[in-house]
Amino acid sequence: MPRFPRNPGDPSAPPEDAHNPRSRRMYQEKVRHHTGEIQDLRGSMNQLIAKLQEMEAMSDEQKMTQKIMKMIQGDYIEKPDFALKSIGASIDFEHTSATYNHDKARSYWNWIRLWNYAQPPDVILEPNMTPGNCWAFAGDRGQVTIRLAQKVYLSNLTLQHIPKTISLSGSLDTAPKDFVIYGMENPPREEVFLGAFQFQPENTIQTFPLQVGVRGHGRAAAMFESIFQNQPARTFGAVKVKISSNWGNPRFTCLYRVRVHGSVTPPKEQPGQNPSPQRD
């Protein structure tokens, strides 16, 4: 029988008398034992690798969630918002439609599992864009008047609605459709036409350019353009958003957020400015 060389520093090395059946069995048991340990270690490493991959995937999901929330909140619109409640903007309730707070509204909102079904109008002046955190008025015609934080030279107005992917009803039929913007002064209560537009709910955030008498479309806009095209820029302390239709809901219309942009200093004239997109 061949003799096995023995390494005194290796306890698993076969003994010198490996030809002895008992010694051979002990050696084989040690080999099996170490083989089992190696297999267990390999299994633990595989589990660790899988866990690390899972954590990496979760990290990607969190990054995607942050990106989506950033899109929802509209952080990429780098324009000052003078209709922000936290800086002093408020709702002129005298010139704002009543909140949709009928008994039938309660069952409907609860049916799609929304909370606070009757939010006040000033919710549209806050950046919270969670589903259901909107102001609703009855039917498809209504208006809201916003007292700005200060008098400004208006440039744009931004409307924002939640995307269909997070709508609990799976529909965007409560989103506003056709609307008109007026600048208001106090006193007196003069309404100045600033534009007529259409909101497309597939684009959750849309910014519309405003300019006295030249940003609307149709006969009314042409009339205002001829009247005001030579008048100097002016400041407004309030803005009225007058909605004339929504995207199909017969009971109520929802506004999620309205932002008003401009500057406290007179804007520079920009000849040849591109006209706003045409309405459908």
UniProtKB/TrEMBL annotation:
Coiled-coil stretches noted in the UniProt entry, renumbered to this chain: 38-65
Keywords: Coiled coil, Membrane, Transmembrane, Transmembrane helix
Residues annotated as domain SUN: 88-265
A molecular function GO annotation: protein-membrane adaptor activity
Gene Ontology cellular-component annotations: meiotic nuclear membrane microtubule tethering complex; nuclear inner membrane
Chain spans, region Disordered: 1-23
Pfam families given in the database record: Sad1_UNC
PANTHER family according to UniProt: SAD1/UNC-84-LIKE PROTEIN-RELATED, SUN DOMAIN-CONTAINING PROTEIN 5
Name of the molecule in the record: SUN domain-containing protein 5
Lineage: Eukaryota, Metazoa, Chordata, Craniata, Vertebrata
